[in-house]
Amino acid sequence: MNEEYRGVWTLSEVREGRIHPVSYELLAWGRDLADTLGVPLSAVLLGSGVTEQAPELIVHGADQVYVVDDPNLAHFKADSFSKTLAELVNRHRPEIFIASATSSGRTVMPVLYADLETGLTADCTELGIDTKERLLLQTRPAIGGNVMADIKTPLRRPQMCTVRPRSKKPLPPDRSRTGRIIAEKAVPGSLSSVMKLLEFLPEKNVGAPLQDAEVIVAGGKGMKKGANFALLEELAGLLGGSVGASRTAVDLNWAPYSSQVGLSGKSVTPKLYIACGISGAVQHLAGMSAADTVIAVNTDPEAPIFRVADLAIVGDVLEVIPALIGRLKS
Amino acid sequence: MRIGVLVKQVPATENVRIDEETGTMVREGVEAELNPLDLHAVEEAVRLKDRLGEGTEITVISMGPPQAQKAVRAAIAMGCDRGLLLSDRRFAGSDTLATARTLAAGVQKAGGFDLLLSGERATDGETGQVGPAVGQILGLSVLTFVSAVESAAKGSLVVRRAVEGGHERVEAPLPAMLSVVKEINTPRLCTLGGKIRAKKTEIPVLGADDLPIPPELLGLPGSPTKVVKVSYPQITRSGKKVAAADSLNGAVEEILSVLRGRGIV
Questions:
Q1: Is residue A90 pLDDT above 80, yes or no?
Q2: Chain B closest CA to A176's CA: distance in Å?
Q3: Between A103, A144, A271, which is nearest B262 by CB?
Q4: What's chain A's average pLDDT?
Q5: Does B15 have pLDDT greater than 60?
Q6: What is the Cα–Cα distance from A294 to A310, expressed in whole angstroms?
Q7: Which of A33, A242, B216, B230 is most exposed by smallest CB count within 10 Å?
Q8: Hey, are the CB atoms on A307 and B237 less than 8 Å from each other?
Q9: Nearest-CA distance B197 → chain A (Å)
């Protein structure tokens, strides 16, 4: 019966009516998996007025795109999105279905897998294929990144997981790629939602949401007071990055919870993480040690943050950061 | 209003340390505690009870080994009225789906709720999948990443959801399943009176035979996902160490050279 399920699917993410680039990261993962299995790679695109953007998914690696373009899908809602996806999965039977571990991915996939009664693995950082058994091999960190677990879904289909954003680079866009764009329908019962989006309140924050940021400048207790976070905002502004914070800094109200990095905050994987006055408790390291490059500034030469740092500056962050800002400005 | 709170007992991560030799987490002798993110769900339930007044009752439900009754009692000490523990060796090895099935059955045994709450995720498994899955199994409105409950009355509620780039205000009908984020509130410390009450409260325990779930859908056999390997990665890097005290300019130059090397400036 599992042989009826073929093909790899990725769930495209739409924010404010546009395909979000995290969808292209998923296609890069999906391309690897589909090529190893010798099956087509399909992107699923749900939204309102999104059909014209579907070719971008082909350009980034999809062989075909299933589009459900309906005004009811203008905003993400757990029920209408999961019901529509369940209809598509039951109709076309993919063997693998992956989504990004974003707020919507981590909402719709848990609802969908419970409906389909299959397996779902959260927040994977590595995917592969066990070719002998023809199974998806899902690797994810747990217990704050101290444990890596390899997980399989041997019997149920589709094999589902969410994938941590920025865990893979999108494929370079290839405008010569061709593929099929398939308009799909869903029954009114699937498209309807019991929920109503009343309004969206954007956060006035420097830079991109933390999970999307290429550069994160994060502050901890060593910043001494909340007002000094202005320095970090200035530095982040100069580097095109966003401001993060340790739990201590958030608990002291120096920074909002949305900027908290670590076990009880966000896991981030930027290109560069600058830890300013953060000692590096295990809980904090759990959220940032996967960054490509880490620069840490701390007065304590024994601070644990230095163990995950590519560059360790032993010194007062309130001297080093202003000096760095001065140099960047000149 | 009937409120249920789903909680999990986890290893206390606040005091974890890393073995210097192996670079792995030391778990021996680490105490168990109520999942820190669940404290916010318990707190929100107690605040809702204060707001909604008489006729509101809170039940805490957990699945785990017999010792997990400690986590249930910790929630009662904060102001929940009663507890229920789902405990059976046949639940062992449950993945998130088998756990959600078991908890959903426990919720039904407890008579169902208008509002179910959970933390965003547990600090050990870190999946955040169980709450929404329980909501789906029971046919509730599923609202995740809830950062405020603005209103909950007359069969519907308005919540804020913390999403990328801001907050959504969403209206949904009851019954509903809410997983809440840390920013929703600051959990209270439990009072001595609360602790005494929690100690005196009897926690009923239900096992596999008490739940209408076929054995093949419970525990390890009922779990679609299988952990095939566990490894302990080193999170150590051999970074270059520079003392700013020797030369502030030198330190800044080192940072600039990394920024240039990575193509950031």
A1: yes
A2: 29
A3: A271
A4: 94
A5: no
A6: 5
A7: B216
A8: yes
A9: 29
Burial (0-12, 13-18, 19+ Cβ within 10 Å), B179: buried
Answer yes or no: do A197 and B241 touch at CB < 8 A.
no
Chain A residue whose CA is closest to B129: A110
Write the burial class of residue B173 (CB in 10 Å: 0-12 exposed, 13-18 middle, 19+ buried): middle
Nearest Cα residue in chain A from B135: A111
Contact B163, B145 (CB under 8 A): yes
**Distance of residue A188 Cα from the nearest chain B Cα, in angstroms:** 18
To test the contact with chain B by mutation, choose from A14, A103, A321 the residue with the greatest count of B C-beta atoms within 10 A, namely A103
- What are the pLDDT digits (tens) for A234-253? 999 999 999 999 999 998 99
Residues in chain B: 265
Domain with CATH 3.40.50.1220 in chain A: 210-329
Cross-chain Cβ contact B132/A293 below 8 Å: no
Higher-confidence position of B234 and A253: A253
**Residue B232 confidence (pLDDT):** 75
What are A276's two structure tokens?
A: 């300013």
Calculate the alpha carbon distances from A110 to A223, A316, B159 in Å: 39, 45, 20
Domain A2-191 sits in CATH 3.40.50.620: yes
ipTM of the complex as predicted: 0.91
CA-based nearest residue in chain A for residue B179: A107
Tokens 């390890």 locate to: B220
Does the structural domain A210-329 have CATH classification 3.40.50.1220?
yes
Residues B127 and A122: their CA atoms lie apart, in Å, by: 5
Give the H or E element holding residue B70. helix B69-77
Minimal CA separation from B264 to chain A, in Å: 7
Interface test with B, best of A155, A257, A311 (most B CBs within 10 A): A311
Q: B102-144 pLDDT, tens per residue?
A: 999 999 999 999 999 999 999 888 899 999 999 999 999 999 9
H or E stretch including B132? Answer: helix B130-137
Q: Strand pairing of B176-180 and B141-153? A: parallel
Nearest chain A residue (CA) to B242: A313
Is a pLDDT exceeding 60 seen at residue A115? yes
Mean pLDDT of A144-149: 76
Q: Which of B20, B252, B257, B258 to mutate to test the interface with A (most CBs of A within 10 A)?
A: B252
DSSP annotation of B238: -
Intervals of CATH 3.40.50.620 along chain A: 2-191
Contact flag B255-A118 (C-beta cutoff 8 Å): no
